[in-house]
Amino acid sequence: MSRLYCHLCSLPQSACLCAHVSPQPCPLPVLILQHPLEARHAKSTVPLLRLALPDIRLEVTEHLDPLPPPAKGRWWLLYPDAQALDVDAEAATLPMADIGGLVVLDGTWRKTRRLLHLNPWLRELPTLSFSEAPAGEYAIRKGPGGQALSTLESLAHVLNRLDADFAPAPLHRLLKIRVAQFQSHQTDAG
Ligand SMILES: [Zn+2]
């Protein structure tokens, strides 16, 4: 018997999250560059991000042409390199007018490094990092960048730092439900 998928959230019907989604506008343009191998991962948080923030753009590829500039400012890359501005420690001095859009790499630490290697223009972008995000709740996987935070949690935290009106709670709620689904599935299987 073939598995039935919800046509709105693309999850199996038994795991449909549509009733729990409160979509909100993204406070600035966000592009997620996802490594193709990551896209097949059942535990990727990107599908949840797309439900909660329908404005975000997703590109699943190893090679992406340089982006045209956002409506204002420049694209910034969410990546913890040595030059990165820390949205927590340097919150008071962030050049907000210059942060016109965010590029987020989705994949393991190794795959995100590969994306940087294959798309040298990404390495020219100014970078943002964070240091005080709440402890990760997504216990089933380690997040990109080596930190124990999923892409969803990382982006929710940074967007909230860049725009205090942005509410991370609806995103965390979706993630919690998804974690519970995986845990109950493990219990069923065991
Ligand atoms: Zn659904």
Question: Which helices and strands occur, and which strands form pairs?
Answer:
Elements (H helix, E strand, L loop, with lengths): L29 E5 L1 H4 L6 H7 L4 E4 L13 E5 L6 E2 L12 E8 L2 H10 L1 H4 L3 E3 L21 H12 L6 H21 L1
Parallel strand pairs: 1-2, 1-5, 3-5, 3-6, 4-6
Characterise this structure.
- This protein is an alpha/beta fold and 190 residues long.
- The protein has helices at residues 36-39, 46-52, 109-118, 120-123, 151-162, 169-189, and strands at residues 30-34, 57-60, 74-78, 85-86, 99-106, 127-129.
- It has one domain (22-87, 98-189).
- 31% of the residues lie in helices and 14% in strands.
- A 6-stranded parallel sheet has the order 2-1-5-3-6-4.
- The radius of gyration is 17 Å and the shape is globular.
- The two termini are 23 Å apart.
- The mean pLDDT is 88.
- Residues 6, 8-9, 11, 16-18 line the site of zinc ion.
What's the rounded overall pLDDT mean?
88
Report the bound ligands by name, code or SMILES: zinc ion
Portion of residues in helices? Answer: 25-40%
Detail the poorly predicted runs. Answer: none
What is the strand content? 5-15%
Biggest sheet layout: 6 strands, parallel
Number of domains: 1
Structural class: alpha/beta
Tally the helices. 6
Q: Output the radius of gyration.
A: 17 Å
Helix-strand sequence: EHHEEEEHHEHH
User: End-to-end distance, in Å?
Assistant: 23 Å
